[in-house]
Amino acid sequence: xxxxxxxRSVSLPAPAKINLFLAVSGIxxxxxxxxxxxxxxxxxxxxxxxxxxxxxxHLIFECVGNKQLNGVDNLVEQAVHVWRxxxxxxxxxxxxxxxxxxxxxxxxxxxxxxxxxxxxxxSFLQDPLSFDALHSLSLMLGxxxxxxxxxxxxxxxxxxxxxxxxxxxxxxxxxxxxxLLFKPPIGFSTPEIYSxxxxxxxxxxxxxxxxxxxxxxxxxxxTEDFLFNDLQKAVFLKHLYFAPLFKKINxxxxxxSLLTGxxxxxxxxxxxxxxxxxxxxxxxxxxxxxxxLLQTRFEANPKQSNLFS
Length: 309
Known about the structure:
The longest helix is centred in the middle third of the chain and has 14 residues, at 109-122. The strands form two sheets. Strands 1, 2, 3, 4, 5, 6 and 8 form a seven-stranded mixed beta sheet that branches. The chain starts with 8 loop residues before the first strand and ends in a 12-residue tail after the last strand. It is built from ten helices and eleven strands. The chain has 309 residues and is α+β, with helices and mostly antiparallel strands. It has helices at 75-87, 109-122, 131-141, 169-175, 190-200, 206-217, 223-226, 231-238, 242-253, 276-287; strands spanning 9-27, 33-53, 59-64, 92-98, 153-158, 162-165, 178-183, 228-229, 257-259, 266-269, 292-297.
């Protein structure tokens, strides 16, 4: 049994992500899809606050900003359960989630929240769990959860369990770029989008993905030319309003737009001289005043979480 260390409360950010590159090469023997993806974390984040309470095995969870997440099936509560099962710690907790990342957007908010909860709970232990132990617990919560154990830019392979930090020229280049997020007033189900892709059978070749990644990582392919998402094929077939807007943004401003993950959030990267207000007006004219719009940047310090440095 792990022992508590006397800490009474912690608070930490749970960042959103975008997929700069997402190739799906088929279905694995375990039923999951084989992916090859480059993820970048953003300054947009939720806040997880955890407080120790006297009642053993008790959990109070509250979500500020999205009350529909106040249920037993949310990933933060699942994270507490798997952590307790692994550590045998009976300490009670009150957790408050300040929700700022849109849901069903492909921004990874739920997974990021769950991993932030694991990292926060880990700080309550005299002998904290190792990175490998937290990696195993995070994978139990979802295929994309392990990627949130590493901040900044990372390469994700397999079903999502193979995660490695990307550093160097491309990482430094992204630090200088702004990101515009835009999302229609609806959300998408990730399993549904993957099912649509499976029905089409329009998968990428893993060798081509690896070659393109290598060229980009060496600075021989620009980030805009590297941007790619296999799931756009499935989304565009059903939701016909994406492609015309992407084309208009490109023709008027020279910006390439991309769906992030399974959507419905999209993004484009800034460049010198761009006026975001003009871009926003075009997006709102196409998708309406309820469109989610946010200017943000990539996470400032793309290093592995300092809990494991």
